[in-house]
Prior knowledge:
By secondary structure, this protein is an alpha+beta fold. It has 8 helices and 5 strands. Strand 2 and strand 3 form a beta hairpin. The longest helix is centred in the first third of the chain and has 40 residues, at 19-58. The chain is elongated.
Amino acid sequence: MAELKEVFEMATKQMEPDQDSWNQQERRQRRTARNRKIGAIAVAAVIGLAAVVLILETRPGKDVTAPATEPSVVNPADTEAVLVASGFLEAFGAFDAERARTYLAEGADITGMTEGMGVEGLPLMISWLEASGYQQTITSCEAGTSGTDTSVLCTFDFHGLRSDEIGRGPFTGSDFAITVRDGAISRASMTWETQKFSPQMWEPFADWVSTIHPKDAAVMYQDATLTNFRLTEESIRLWDQHTREYVKEVDQGTAQ
């Protein structure tokens, strides 16, 4: 009987669970359950956020195909100023001095377009441009309003000294700077980009005319540097005459 009792006690002791192992197992189970719960909450949050976004994007009256950014609002003053500037430059490029003047405010400063002569010099400037074979193409106009003034910057390409007739140009990078106030132009100037035009057209023509017609060159240019033209009726007549002659000689190969 003693042996049987000993065997029974040994069997019973082996069947009792190890307390430390049991506690570790419980901790693992609680940790696994906690992680599952956190994961479920996270998934629910993501689903909820997606649902809110979907509701906002598809609510009545909303175009779900609309771009993320709203189009910029056009300033009416900018639009008006561009129209005024464009009208003036169209008349200027068409050699219509009278129509161009209708876009100018009283006392407008356009000395930057007329070799310092102001509004009174506009007809002479336009006549010189026409006589020298000028052509312009406006490539862009941008406006910005500050206070009562709207500034318009228009870029343009041009032909000069009948460059189109000898296959040179157009020359890019020039611009008109125009200020519009109360629907009229209060200031205007033009900037020529001559980096290519000068060596291709201005300098060769100046060399040719000063060599072939030195007395006329003295009338056509302001001084011996031959860098600035003179705005007089006689000068304009000579520019028209000699630019035409120059084109013929270039075509014949007797001038550059």
